[in-house]
Model the fold of this input.
Amino acid sequence: MNSTELMQLDSSCVMQTYGRFPVAIDHGQGATLYSPEGKTYIDFASGIGVNCLGYGNKAWLEAVTTQAKKLAHISNLYYSEPYIRLAQQLTGRTGMKRVFFANGGGEANEGMIKLCRKYSYDKYGTGRSTIITLRDSFHGRTITTLTATGQDVFHQYFFPFTEGFQYAVADDIESVKALDDGTVCAVMVELVQGEGGVLPLSPEFVSSLQALCQEKDWLLAVDEVQTGVGRTGKLFCFQNYGILPDVVSFAKGIGGGLPLAGIMAGEKTQMVLTPGTHATTFGGNPICCAGGLAVLEQLNEEFLSSVREKGNYLREKIASMPGVTGVRGMGMMLGIGLAEGLQCGDIVKKLLEEGLLCLTAGHNTIRLLPPLSISQEEMDQGLAILQRVLAG
Done:
């Protein structure tokens, strides 16, 4: 089917919950995508950070194909090798203690919220269940994770929302302390706020937050759905800050394109979730976890160093482009601030027309999440398009 036929069929049988761009994608190779008609696009979005190894990665393809021929699904009533090996890799490379596997970021954050509240209930009983999150945060699309999201625009339509969330100001430790009313059990943060505008938290704030959580026996819960799996130049973003959280969620890049997510628990939270308290049918799927193992095997220190180098290269080139007021972020998670009069949505549409896929974020920001494996040639092709569009 051609692009027009696909769009027409979509409009007749698919719920119209997405503001899709008028582009259909048929296949990809490296960081280059192709429409059914053969038009090429340089990908600076990677499926919103999911396709961390790009398209057609041989080791990933071999891993998932081999596993698909062997065992596709068995449920969590039985043991299977891929999820156990993946959990071993994650804990061994992070200092976290145990892993629970889920399927997507919202689901992972739901599990993290449940863990935080159960930890406090087990230790203190009722009345200590409030979770502090930050303004401009984004934690998911379920009822509870929408409530956790610190943006009023998401608190509509689906009333009543889940109780028990308060919102502090990023990089303002006093605003966190002001919410201490005796009911708090955890603070949940993105170390780089993605949807909110690619806004990194300051190291001083994160250090103070960790100390406060330790003092109060609040759990420090870090949402690494978008920042994890090499995106910021370390395997997980918290490693850039030199901290070890009590619980961490992850998703997006871990499956290399397959639906895979989860939470990692630290020393004092590793035994909180017990049989019957949390579960999922598809979590730890053998094919997805085989893909996850192929991802982690390639994200060695040499690869992660290249992510940092590529991110610095992109940042330097973009900073000097017309209409750019600044570039923020870490590694290959970058946000481009625009001069007054330029609208990120309009720019992203023009970039698409010229053959470059980018994303938007809050604070009128163009967001870049290229495949971590993107080549120098593909980066330069994308930068040339960006330069041309910004120059008008």
